[in-house]
Amino acid sequence: MRTLQYYAFIVYFALLIFLSFVFISPLPIFLSLPFLWLIVFSEFRVGRKIDADREYEEKRYMEGNVTNFKYEIQGKGYYIIRDSLNELRGYCHDRCVINKKTVLSQFGKISFKYMEIYFEDFLGMIADYKKKKDSGELRVYPRIEYMRKLRIKPRKTRNLLGDYPSRRKGRGLEFTDIREYVPGDEMRRVNWKASARRNELIVNEYESERTGDTVILLDVRRFYKGEEEYEKLLKASVRAAATIATYLSRTRSRVGIVLLGESVDWIYPTYGKRAMYLILDRLLYVRSREISHLSFDYGKFIVSRFFPPNSFVILISPLLSWDIDDAIVELLAKNYDILVISPTLVGEKKDLASQILRMEREVRLRRLRVYARVVDWDISYPLTSVLRVIR
Amino acid sequence: MKRYAWIPLGIYLASLPFFAIESLRIFLLTLMSVGITLGIIILYLIIQDELLFYIYNFAAIVSLIVSLENFNPYSLFTLLIGYSLLLLLLLHIYLYRFTQKFGVIRRDTLIYVILSIPLSYASVYLFLSMSVGYGFWGAALLLSLILVLLYFLIRSKSEKSSNAP
Questions:
Q1: Residues of A with Cβ-Cβ distance to B79 under 8 angstroms
Q2: Cβ contacts (< 8 Å) between A80 and chain B: which residues?
């Protein structure tokens, strides 16, 4: 394949010969000779077509991590190598090894399907382009904030043993009260000091620690046309969901997720690391490319249909849709315990539309605060710092 | 590096009117052609189309021909000026194109670009100034040169096909 430069030089050569007739002067012909020589040089010294291979460590990465790609290029000439993540440009003389460090700035799954290789000889006259089949993928998980302890607990618990203090008394670690001994009580529960003081057997009572089901209801429907605003809110929401899911997977409670984006998707409540990886893997694909027409009722329906009542619903939503508050009231009526975490871009834009949207959101927040716990989260602050002060 | 690629072109375009200073007509024509070149450069910087890159470079070559119109084309001095200025333009073409496209430019590339100028000068000198360019021996030399070139063109093609994966 010839480059545009090659054809341009041929045309220069032809036009200069033509100009020598126009100007009735041999000077244009003389000036055309360097172009001819350059074409001849390129025919003498042909480069060797470039081929490339890439190596990298296939493991789980987190947003902001730096990964090292090792490209091995073979051939002789100038090259542009482009894959799903990187672009390399330069010159290779026979064999080159290029180590490229890439900052994985955005979460998601990167699939390496094709590698584009463009080659040009040393004078830019001969080119070659090929699309090589490529394989491999890179999973970049959203950045997770470390949360030592979440103060917000579900108000309702299940019968299984877990980490959340229950209203019921039973086996646990937290001391609550003492009472008179009744036959059947374990001897190790006898409070000997209190028994000596009262001259009758007294036993300790403990707070029972139970498990609870938690559903993360992530609302990433798109209401902004602006790419930047949506990306900011999306990133913050997904990070929050990932942080909470990771924290909850460390406790002995079940955690599930309902996603409202371009479509509705959900994962049933599960325990432990399995739940964490299921949720984190699903979060990699969360993105809404077009303005969403999906109603919040779908999310409400999925929660009430597939998740047990008494579940703790953590709703992460910018609260920009009008149908959200009625749906929350309905969920509360169905005995779900709700915490709303609302990421916001406070004071981002001063135009009238943004002001109206902000005011509407304020009204919605005020209304929600009456019957649910609400966290108004300015995304310029870390989520953990906001949750730390809330009980 | 990409920024430095404009320096040779700047020197080239700025020096063109100096060679046309003897005749007002040619001076004005040169100024006009340089103006046209600058216009196409601005257009190129806006549109960023590679075709415009070659168009403004050709306009710059035409400006050179216009500015040297009063000079004796057979004089080696004229050729020296012409080729020196053309070298600046070629340097601009290569420096700009390669640094923009590949981020680097090899010394080999620049050496071959520079080498094309003395070779062209020698070719003109050989065929026009010396008697070798005329008569039977001149024609025979030209023919043999064409044959040699054809041989290398064919040979390089076979080499290229051997590189196919």
A1: 30
A2: 101-102
Mean pLDDT, rounded, for A255-282 = 87
In chain B, which residues have their Cβ closer than 8 Å to the Cβ of A16? Answer: 61
Which residues of chain B have a CB within 8 Å of the CB of A33? 119-120, 123-124
For residue A22, how far is the Cα from the chain centroid? 66
Say yes or no for a CB contact (<8 Å) between B102 and A123.
Answer: no
Q: Where are the alpha helices (DSSP H) in A4-54?
A: 4-22, 27-44
Which of A298, A297, A316, A308 is CA-nearest to residue A245? Answer: A316
* Nearest CB neighbour to B50, from listed A4, A41, A44: A4
CA–centroid distance for A186 within its chain: 50
Q: Do A12 and B86 touch (CB under 8 A)?
A: no
pLDDT of residue B159: 46
> HEC profile for chain B?
CCCCCHHHHHHHHHHHHHHCCCCHHHHHHHHHHHHHHHHHHHHHHHHCCHHHHHHHHHHHHHHHHHHCCCCCCCCHHHHHHHHHHHHHHHHHHHHHHHHHHHCCCCHHHHHHHHHHHHHHHHHHHHHHHCHHHCHHHHHHHHHHHHHHHHHHHHHHHHHHHHCCC
For B50, name the nearest residue in chain A, comparing CA atoms only.
Answer: A4
pLDDT tens-digit readout, A139-164? 888 888 887 777 666 666 666 666 66
CA B30 to chain centre: 18
Q: Please name every residue paired with A97 in a beta bridge, in sequence order, or none if there are none.
A: A72
Rounded to whole angstroms, the Cα distance separating B96 from B53 reads 10
Interface of A with B in 34-73 (CB under 8 A): 34-38, 40-41, 43-46, 48-49, 51
Question: What's the rounded Cα separation, in Å, for the pair A133 and B136?
Answer: 58
Asked whether A302 and A264 are in contact (CB, 8 A), the reply is yes
Residue A224 touches partner B, C-beta closer than 8 Å: no
Token code pair at residue A33:
């000779």
Contact A4/B103, CB-based, under 8 Å? Answer: no
pLDDT band at A311 (very low <50, low <70, confident <90, very high): confident
On whether any CB of chain B is under 8 Å from the CB of A234, the answer is no
Residue pair A321/A223 in contact by the 8 Å Cβ criterion: yes
Determine, for residues A44 and B152 on separate chains, whether the beta-carbon distance falls below 8 Å: yes
Q: What is the CA radius of gyration of chain A?
A: 33
Centre a 10 Å sphere on the Cβ of residue A318 and count the other Cβ atoms it contains. Answer: 25
